[in-house]
Amino acid sequence: MLSFEDGEILDLARELAALSGETLISAIRTALEERLGRERMLRSADRGLADRIDHLDDALAPLTIEMV
User: What is the chain's mean pLDDT, rounded?
Assistant: First the structure.
């Protein structure tokens, strides 16, 4: 059972359900799944970028010239 103390959350969920033609629970589930999927992709992309930067840093390390 879901319970919302914040009336705005319930209003948003009801509006989404009405617009999408889903039940309230289905609309909430879909919204959460979609948001979770986007967050997972962002985390994965961030990690992939960090890995590429680390690899590039390692590859360029021998070429580094120390400035005095």
Answer: 86
How far apart are the two ends of the chain, measured CA to CA in Å? 66
- The DSSP string of 14-68 is HHHHHHHT--HHHHHHHHHHHHHHHHHHHHHHHHHHHHHHHHHHHHHGGG-----
- Which sequence spans correspond to the domains of the chain? 7-61
DSSP 6: -
Question: 19-23: long-range contacts at Cβ-Cβ below 8 A with a sequence spacing of 24 or more?
Answer: none
Please state whether the predicted TM-score (pTM) of the whole model is above 0.85: no
At 1 the pLDDT is 65
